[in-house]
Amino acid sequence: MGHALIVEDDADSAEMMAALIASEGFTAATATSLRDARRQLALQEPDIVLLDLVLPDGSGMELFNEPETLANTEVVLITGHASLETSIQALRLGAADYLIKPVNIKQLQGILSRVMRPSTLKAEIANLRAELERTGRFGLLWGRSAAMQRVYEQVARVSGTAVTVLITGESGTGKEVVAQTIHELSRRRKKPFLAVNCGAISPQLIESEIFGHEKGAFTGADRLHQGFFERAHGGTLFLDEITEMPLELQVKLLRVLETGTFMRVGSTQSMEADVRVIAATNRVPEQAVQQGKLREDLLYRLNVFPIHLPPLRDRPEDVSLLAEHFLQDICKREGENKRFAPQALEKMRSYRWPGNVRELRNVVQRAYVMEEGHVIGDEWLVFDTPAVQEQRGPYLTVRVGTPLADVERSLILATLQHFGGHKEKTAAALGVSLKTLYNRLKEYSQDGGSTPESS
């Protein structure tokens, strides 16, 4: 059974919250002043403190000046309204969450269901740091570079709070992995983590997908549909490529962040949104605002705690570690062990990886498939960028305005010719499956084109 302390100068409100907390299986004590709070803290260390900052004999913030008093207690601020300032204040003070007056029963129940002593979270972070020293892994993230060490520190700092996070970085740097690591270190870990790519959903459907819709809300809505906010209840919602969300929907998202409520499409009834939002973009947020891709007020509301992921070219010392990690994962999945030759690792370290970690994973996957032996040399390390392809073979000149189908045909046939008709090497070089290559060659043959003989 947990113990809660309610520090609230309104005695009636304090007693009401104490009754609610007792119904959730906690014991509860109340304090209407700082003096009473200190006395209660000395009598029994609570698992959670619900702290109003405005008290008759001072500010509740004064308790944060006595770290030993709250060293192993989760603190939840009680505030008159949800605002950006409240989020920043909660983060700065080290509070885990905040409640809005008048206290909502469901919100309070959600917070109580996630109570976790700070010492538990600190121990988990310490274990992750020890694992980082041994293996180069921090949760779901890999890398020992200074740039990634900074990311780990930020993740450790923000995971135990409820504030919104905005992750920036180039495509393929691992923004979703960072978001998932934050979730798995948070008090919401037992609830869902849902990821939404805002750029991959039709603008006509994205509102319904995120907020849900009522039966009959529009043509084709033949049943009630729960959106991501409902399905992620109690957990974390990751909104990737937030700048691709339509501006009119950004207004509604802002409202959810400010009020904690939303409505399904076609409904007039508000629903509680007990969800932590983490957003991400591969654009520079300020430029996205200038270009009309992102509302400035939404940026301020999301950017409470920014995390920037470095591109892989800025942490070359992590390339070998990541490549070995991906290879081990593939070996485990496929049931056949392979390893990199030294020259293969050196070649990967010297490449600039414009596709970042995602490109590295693809390259390792292709090399594993193409290498028939147990040692992967540099022969099958076929990178995704044209610059590297040019180093491996002749140029292919394409006139501006050439139809894409013609460009694809010319590139496939020229690559096949370069490799002497060897289809496996051609497929690997182009980054496509053998089946795709065979299908394309069959199409060209039916159209009357010729292909080199296979070897």
Report on this model:
The model is unreliable at 386-392 (pLDDT under 50). Strand 1, helix 1 (11-23) and strand 2 (27-31) form a beta-alpha-beta unit. By secondary structure, this protein is α/β, with parallel strands linked by helices. Helix content is 44%, strand content 14%. The strands form six sheets. It has a five-stranded parallel sheet, with helices on both faces. A five-stranded parallel sheet has the order 11-12-15-10-16. It is built from 19 helices and 18 strands. The longest helix has 18 residues, at 118-135. Helix 6 (146-159) crosses helix 7 (175-184) and helix 13 (319-334) packs across helix 15 (356-370). This is DNA-binding NtrC family response regulator. Pfam families: AAA_lid_14, HTH_8, Response_reg, Sigma54_activat. Keywords: ATP-binding, DNA-binding, Nucleotide-binding, Phosphoprotein, Transcription, Transcription regulation.
Describe the structure concisely:
Helix 6 (146-159) crosses helix 7, helix 17 packs across helix 18 and helix 18 (423-430) packs across helix 19 (434-446).
